[in-house]
Structures are given as structure tokens and as C-alpha cells.
Amino acid sequence: MASAAPPVSLPDEATLLRAVQAAVRAPSVYNSQPWRWRVDRKAGIDLFADRDRHLITIDSGGRDLLLSCGAALAHLVVALAGLGLSAQVDRFPDPEDSDHLARVRPTEATPTETQVADLARLAPAILLRRTDRRRFAAAPVDPHLLDTLVTHADRCGADLYVVTGATARTRLIETIARSASLQRQQAGYGAELARWTGRYSAAADGIESSTIAAGIDLPGDVPMRRFTAGRLRQPTHSLEHADASVLMVLSARSDDRLGTLRAGEAVGAVLLAATGMGLATTPLSQPLEVARTRDWVSEHLVGAAVFPQLVIRVGWPDEHAAALPPTLRRGADHVLLRKP
After folding, report:
1. Alpha-carbon span 30 to 251, nearest angstrom
2. Could you point out which of 21, 168, 179, 240 has its C-alpha 20 to 30 Å from the C-alpha of 9?
């Protein structure tokens, strides 16, 4: 009779906390950071949705919340890989707790785990990634780089559609503008926007005005969500050339919470991969927050068999663009839960 396998030893708690500190660098809707974490050397790392940070007006169904948490989950797995650890992810592990989104059990990676090595290459991008709302350069993005981003999304169980052709791009931009107009008419939208924007420079969440481009409403031809008066200077001479940004639509493969969480993981992986390539990125959730415009994107761009979740704008940063400072994140005492 075969002997029982020895119990798996997890890394020490300090190492797990380092990974969580990297995971909270993930982008989230309005920088709301709607997540809580529990670290236990015996059980691993648990990810929970923080309902106190749910934006109930723009995100009544919780789609943006799940995307945000999925991006954080991807950052966690990448951070663990950067520490030489493999991660076993169990999504929605507790049927009695719908806010328990994932349990991650890290173990020491073996030299043959090529997937861990591939993820580890993304780890340096965690501290470098920024949301850039400024104009991009005129240089086009090479198609093979876009293909690489599509592959990263596919590995996460999601689809990334690159919008090609002037007509499709124009119609998507018109749809983005239409969604903004419809949201401004929505009761409670202005109050929710005001709550999370125009934060002072030391705020640990929300959208700080120094991250919002000043002087123009359109960085290139793509409308941004109107947060508050921006203080971020546009690159010198950036209005003298075209903005060659590319628009991509990231979609889930199932219209359920698991599909959306997996799509969020793809968002995290794609943004980190783009950052590692030296590309600038802007996640745009607004056009998919309105049912009417989300249906248009599904019907006319990505197809009915997939479910659009986010538009990602990607391009080369302008050569005169100043480096963006990191946005602050909540401290461990605000995001960690006590052990049961």
C-alpha cells in the first residue's frame, strides 16, 4: 500500500505578505481597490470582494468589482512567480460565501515549470505599470506585440480583440462617447464620481487630479471619463502629431461571475505584459458599464459568443512625456482580514 503524500509546506508569512503588497498595485475601477486579503501560512492567501467599496451606481451588477479583483489576483500570481513560487488558484472556493473570490496556495516552483518562469518575467512590471491618460506617440504598435497581448489574454481564459480599420475604430469611439452621455444622465452618477475623484495627493485611493490629463478633453481621438479638472501636463508638442494608440476589447468567455473574474485576470496580465514591452496603457471601463453600448460592442465588434468587459487603449508613450508617479494604495492594516 502506497504511503500518503507528505503535506505541502507553504512559504513563510512574510513572503506571502510581500506578494499581497505587490497584488494591491493592480488597477481598479476609480482606484477603489475593492478587495480584502487573508494570509495564512497553512491555508494560503484568500481574496475577498470588499462590498463597502462597490460602486453601486456605475457598477450595479458588480462587473467592475470582479474585473478589479481579477486583475489583483493576476498580480498576486505574477508576484509569487517573481518570488520563485508556483500558485494553485481555486476560484470561488466557498459556495456559502460569494465574496470569497479565490484561494491561492503557493509552493516552491520546480525548474521544469515554464509557466512560472514566463509569469516571473512580468513581475518587474508590477511597480512600473501606470494608467496613462495622456496623448500617445505617433509611432504605430507592431502587430506582433499586439499578438503577444492577445496570447496573454488567452492563457487567462479570455479573449482580446484588436480593433482594426478606421471605420470600426470610429464607431467604437462614438460608442464610448455615447456611453459617457448616457451615464451623465443616470441618477447618482455625479455624486459617485465626486466621491472618488479629485482626491488630494496623499489619498490612498480614488482618482487624484495629478493623474488626469490637463488642457484637453481628448488625448488623441479617444474620450476619457470626465473625472475632475486635471493637473497632469500633456507632453511637449504632443498636439502636433497624431496619436497612434490602438483600441482593444477584452471579453469573457462566459456571462457569469467566473467568466468576469477570469477576464479581470486577463486584464492584469495584459497590462503587465504591455508595460514590460515599454507600452503605455489606459483601461476604459465606461463603454461596457452601459447596457446599450455594451450590447453594441458585442453585436458589432466581438460577436455574440463572447462577453465584452473592458476596452484597453495601448500605444507608445510620447518621447517628451514625463514619467508618471505611482498612485498610492491602502496600507496592509486596511486590506488584511484577521485569521478565523
Report:
1. 20
2. 21
Q: Distance of alpha carbon 19 from its chain centroid, rounded? A: 17
Q: Is the dihedral of CA 240, 279, 131, 178 positive or negative?
A: positive
Q: Which stretches does DSSP call E strand in the chain?
A: 35-40, 44-49, 85-91, 100-108, 158-162, 197-199, 207-208, 246-252, 280-284, 307-315
What is the CATH number that goes with domain 143-315? 3.40.109.10
The domain covering 13-124 belongs, at the CATH homologous superfamily level, to NADH Oxidase (3.40.109.10)
Q: What are the tens digits of pLDDT across the range 302-340?
A: 988 899 999 999 999 988 888 888 888 998 889 999 876
Counting beta carbons within 10 angstroms of the beta carbon of residue 195, is it exposed (0 to 12), middle (13 to 18) or buried (19 or more)? middle
Q: Which three cell numbers stand for residue 65?
A: 468589482
Q: What is the DSSP letter of 215?
A: S
Closest of 244, 253, 221, 283 to residue 145, by C-alpha: 244
Cβ neighbors of 317 (< 8 A, separation 6 or more) are 132, 134, 136, 137, 278, 279, 280
Cell numbers found for residue 76:
498576486
Instruction: Calculate the alpha carbon distances from 193 to 173, 198, 206, 211, 326 in Å.
Output: 22, 9, 10, 15, 21
Quote the DSSP letter at residue 285: -
**CA 26, 115, 261: angle at the middle one, nearest 5?**
40
Sorted by where each begins, the domain ranges of the chain are 13-124, 143-315
Rounded Cα distance between 38 and 227, Å, is: 32
253: its cell numbers: 468567455
| 111: pLDDT strictly greater than 90 | no
Orientation angle between helical segments 63-82 and 13-23, nearest 10 degrees? 130
Is 264 within 8 Å of 69 (Cβ atoms)? yes
DSSP letter, residue 237 = T
Rounded to an integer, what distance in angstroms lies between the CA atom of residue 194 and that of residue 239?
Answer: 29
Strand 207-208 to 197-199 pairing: parallel
pLDDT tens for each residue of 140-150: 999 999 999 99
